[in-house]
Amino acid sequence: MYAVIMAGGVGKRFWPRSCKERPKQLLDIVSDQSMLKLTYERLKKVTDEKKIFIVAGQCLYEPILRELPDLPVKNLIIEPSGKNTAPCIGLAATTIIQKDPNAVLGIFPADHLIVDENSFRKAVHRGVQFARDHVALVTFGIMPTRPATGYGYIQYSRKGTVYQEAIYKVKTFAEKPNLPTAKRFLESGEFLWNSGMFIWKADNILNSIKLFLPELHESLQAIAGAMDTPQYTKVLKKQWASIHSESIDYGVMEKAKNVYVVRSTFDWNDVGSWDAVYEIKEKDKNGNVIIGDVVTMNTENSYIYSRKNLISTIGVKDLIIIQSKNAILIVNRNESEKVKDLVDLLERKNHNEHI
User: Do 200 and 290 have their domain in common?
Assistant: First the structure.
């Protein structure tokens, strides 16, 4: 299996620590290693590290190579700009299929937390075997442990397993639900959390892109024709400028009929907000996560981070407080997913020096 790590995101929900030059995936948010490093080390246990590729923007070229000094430079695929997951995956598939026409690709975001790596490896091996032998698009669904409203869901057919009592035909994808809907999903036993991880043969995903996103496929074919020539960078930039931003879920997975899911039991978290980090981290007797120079009084159930300036609090609870560089964020934990909207507002107000 060729493992492709998607590392091009900017991590707006993790502002002010996450910025364009050092986004979420390069931060030590959940441990003393970066999210990207954790992902890379995890994938080294399921495939040859020479088959691990990373897709990211030009501005992250040097930071990624510093973070992963053993990564071969040729395994870092540069996308001229972020165009969501479908172009990212298409570029990776187009690049790797030139090296190996029979390549099986595993697609993994750079910023997910997976605790039970043994179960993860077993799930990946099942997916690889199935994708190698079938014209199938395989995704991973996580057995839900609560009616989460922050995840998308996958409905699968319970009529019968397809492979090793773990792989099922997908019936439909569902967007992030409200709480009553999430409870119904959980009670039905037919829904899994959508992990955003995939396995497929390179030619199968490119054929699916050709069917459902023909304009993207045309651009990828032009890029493929210029690979290993002096014109590659020029052609890539020209074609990339005309490519529309599209997610692989909307663009392909929700339309295709040959979609299967590996029903997975490993502990998984997409670490999608500061509140998610709070839930993961060990807390003190007052329910606080304290990192850095922080002094509190009568403070409860809060995440407070400062590596530079002293932060002091009195009589507050359920807050996220982050001090980083020249900015401070204060937000209610229940509102932490809206930090992305705040960053968008800062961009509109031309506070570019802070983001």
Answer: no
